Amino acid sequence: MQRPVLALLLSLFLSCPLVAQDSLLQQKTFRSRQTLVAAANVAGYGGTMVALYRSWYLHYPRSSFHTFNDMHEWKQVDKTGHLYSAYIQSSASAALWKWAGMNRRSRIWIGGLSGAVYQTAIEILDGYSADWGWSWGDFGTNLLGSGAYIAQELAWDEQRIHLKFSFHRKNYLDHTLDQRSDQLFGTGWSERMLKDYNGQTYWASIRLAPFFKDAHLPAWLAVSVGYGAEGLFGGRDNIATNAAGAVIFDRRDIARVRQWYLSPDIDWSQIKTNKKAVRVLFTFLNAFKFPAPALSYSKGKWRVLPFYF
Length: 309
Prior knowledge:
There is one protein chain. Helix content is 46%, strand content 18%. By secondary structure, it is an alpha+beta fold. The protein has 2 domains: 1-158, no CATH class; 160-309, no CATH class.
């Protein structure tokens, strides 16, 4: 399943033009970088898919390829995660191709579509898993994530709206909820960060200066709109049964609610520095929402949160 994807990446690399340079040395440098980036994409992505299959899909029963509709699960927090993941992968891939000297239009489309391609390969694995299936909702949000990157580059030649992520681990006073969370989302911090939708928040961080040019605002200042949910102890409802059909968890008394947030943020890409290591750090930090005070809206009520991540 991963061979066609890798072949596509290689064909895109071989067909993409280089940026015109005055120096033959610069041309050779960019060719070397493009080879390096292409090899890193193939090796890194191929290795990741093998590791993902061995650590996850290998332990679950397989079936013939099939689809399933999960649009009504998890209050769509999982779909927001797909949008974010495709966006981040597209941004990172395009940045690598820019470093490799690829011309603007090629790197926007090749790098920009990378996120959707990478995520769709995972959907194919889901399609052959008996416990899941190909999700058109996931596929659609993968395309939206890549589209969010591509559209901004074509329209503005920059990212004025960054998609970001934050997470806080949920701990409950009720032992049954902690036990249910361990079963659903794992016990380790990294597992919880990836799987626990109750602790995830996804943000659209909007840089203000380009939209208010006469206000003389700092280039790095942004405002973020966040989305998350709480009370999710099952995909569609808070009840679970065992193989015999007996109820083993029933907390339908807990409300499953959407949550919206408004908070200031920092666009780290707008902070200038000549240090390469610092620029790499800022690029990494820009994938995450900066911890800050926030306004929260849920169940028809506003709350002020002194610190939220």
